[in-house]
């Protein structure tokens, strides 16, 4: 029979998996939508960084490493997305400031999902860590 802590862990882990899959699918979907001839390196990174989210979820077993790598994915995605957005708005002449661009990008759904994956991975580790401490005592 499953107790509350195990149920919370399972729910957090399942939600993390679904969100990391959404982030990865957005990365693959972006591959068809982005023009790779303009800013090729940044465009490839824009697609490749979020595509790694589900791979980290599946194959990294260490909880701390998983949180760290998901944070790298989220921050890298935010940085590359902001860079591409800055280049576009600077070329068209409607940029306010770098901070405004980063804040505007931070509230887009794909970046919010990547940040949520980091938070849920940390929460899953916290719930799992709490269970390990009580079962060993």
Task: Walk me through the structure.
The protein has 137 residues and is mostly helical. The protein has six helices and no strands. It has helices at 4-33, 40-51, 53-59, 63-92, 98-106, 109-136. Helix 1 packs antiparallel against helix 2 and helix 4 (63-92) packs antiparallel against helix 6 (109-136). The radius of gyration is 18 Å and the shape is elongated.
Describe this structure in a few short sentences:
By secondary structure, the protein is mostly helical.
Task: From the structure above, extract its key features.
mainly alpha, 137 residues, 6 helices, single chain
| Amount of beta strand | under 5%
Shape: elongated
Report how far the terminal alpha carbons are from each other: 21 Å
- The amount of helix comes to over 70%
How many DSSP H or I helices?
6
**Major beta sheet summary:** none
The low-confidence parts are 133-137
**What is the typical, i.e. mean, pLDDT?**
90
| CA gyration radius, whole angstroms | 18 Å
The overall strand count is 0
Strand and helix layout:
Layout lengths: L3 H30 L6 H12 L1 H7 L3 H30 L5 H9 L2 H28 L1
Helix pairs in contact: 1-2, 1-3, 1-6, 2-4, 4-5, 4-6
């Amino acid at each position: 029979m499953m107790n509350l802590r195990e149920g919370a862990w399972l729910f957090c882990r399942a939600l993390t998996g679904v969100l990391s899959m959404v982030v990865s699918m957005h990365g693959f979907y972006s591959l068809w939508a982005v023009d790779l001839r303009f800013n090729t390196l940044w465009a490839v990174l824009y697609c490749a960084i979020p595509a790694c989210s589900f791979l980290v979820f599946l194959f990294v077993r260490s909880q701390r490493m998983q949180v760290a790598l998901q944070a790298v994915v989220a921050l890298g995605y935010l940085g590359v997305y902001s860079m591409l957005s800055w280049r576009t708005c600077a070329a068209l002449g409607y940029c306010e400031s770098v901070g405004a661009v980063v804040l505007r990008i931070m509230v887009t759904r794909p970046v919010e999902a990547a940040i949520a994956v980091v938070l849920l991975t940390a929460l899953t580790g916290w719930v799992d860590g709490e269970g390990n401490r009580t079962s060993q005592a």
